[in-house]
Specification:
Its main location: mitochondrion. By secondary structure, the protein is mainly alpha-helical. The chain contains 13 helices and 6 strands.
């Protein structure tokens, strides 16, 4: 959710046509050819006084033209569905992670001897020099558990980034891979936009931070719990962005993984405040993780209050506060109380296995 792509106003002729549409709002998307910037109109365009939105744009946003029309002030009812989606998705994410962990530990015990036998047979086989698959396995095994965990997340972000390069996909990408409380699609983009980047620099910076903190966060939470936290953080930070946009009237699509990554960064910095960090291009300047977190929160708070346009500061703050809350209280309240769910799942699996065994006699 790092870069906030703010909407532009269409021509006055288009604006004049919205007065006959009653009290509902519509999101119009005009696709340009490829990714080239269209010709700019010389006549300055002023926002209509009757619209409830304030148009902004970012240089890192997709080069498509959008306009959001309101005949009245937007209602907070637009947040009802995203609110319930946030609660439901977060619950499902942590429930699925708990079941995943149970199944993984169970299969790990069952496959222990199979893996040992496979390793023994591999030693008996003649080794192939220069085998590509062998080199990949060596590289994969050299990674930490955290780095292996985030590899899939990075691959998903790269795949979505490539989809942005396909001109015929732009309309679909704007609809489903950018989050905007003024869009006709509200819920699914809250998750999908977390994996969406239009700018290469934007994606590279986010993925570098995620890779750098992956070992620390997975060692703190474990693989399954981390995935639940990361996905929930993306949705929660987007919901905070929705709330900010509706209350301030500054509408426009946002995209990026920074809301979820801020949760990771804030969680690690909260748990290890004395750890030393450095800026990518200035490694000679170091500072503590605690001071870095304070500076980031202060900057995003100022950006939210002052209406800075380059970042989605509300999403950043939502992700950071969620990360701080989770490692301080949420882990105890949510993850450590997963036992009833795991027990119910175990009993259901045992019953289904018993029925299957009984039918075979």
């Amino acid at each position: 959710m790092a870069w906030s792509c703010w909407a532009r106003l269409c021509s006055r002729e288009a604006l004049s046509g919205r007065r006959s549409r009653g009290h509902r709002f519509t999101l119009y998307t005009q696709q340009r050819n490829g990714f080239k910037r269209g010709p700019q109109k010389t006549e300055p365009q002023k926002p209509d006084q009757e619209t409830g939105s304030k148009p902004y744009k970012s240089s890192l946003s997709p080069p498509v033209q959008e306009a959001i029309f309101y005949t009245s002030s937007p209602s907070l009812k637009r947040l009802v569905k995203p609110f319930f989606f946030t609660i439901g998705f977060t619950g499902c994410a942590f429930g699925s992670a708990a079941i995943w962990q149970y199944e993984y530990l169970k299969s790990r015990v069952q496959n222990y001897f199979d893996e040992a036998r496979a390793d023994w047979m591999d030693k008996l086989r003649p080794q192939k020099n220069g085998d590509f698959r062998k080199q990949v396995n060596i590289w994969w095994n050299s990674l930490s558990e955290g780095q292996r965990t985030v590899t899939g997340i990075i691959a998903a972000n790269v795949f979505v980034f490539c989809l942005w390069r396909i001109p015929s996909m732009q309309r679909t990408m704007i609809t489903y891979f950018t989050s905007n409380p003024a869009s006709r699609v509200l819920c699914s983009p809250m998750l999908l936009s977390t994996f969406s980047h239009f700018s290469l620099f934007h994606m590279a910076a986010n993925m570098y931070v995620l890779w750098s903190f992956s070992s620390s966060i997975v060692s703190l939470l474990g693989r399954e719990q981390f995935i639940a936290v990361y996905l929930s953080a993306g949705v929660i930070s987007t919901f905070v962005s929705y709330v900010s946009k509706v209350t301030t009237g500054r509408f426009g699509p946002s995209l990026g993984a920074s809301g979820a990554i801020m949760t990771v960064l804030a969680a690690v910095c909260t748990k290890m405040p004395e750890a030393k960090l450095a800026i990518i291009l200035l490694p000679m300047f170091t500072f503590t993780a605690g001071n870095a977190l304070k500076a980031i929160i202060a900057m995003d708070t100022a950006g939210l209050v002052l209406g800075w346009k380059f970042f989605d500061h509300a999403a950043h703050l939502g992700g950071a506060l969620f990360g701080m809350w989770y490692v301080t209280y949420g882990h105890e309240l949510i993850w450590k109380n997963r036992e009833p769910l795991v027990k119910a799942w175990h009993e259901m699996r045992s019953k289904s296995r018993g029925k299957g065994g009984g039918g075979s006699h």
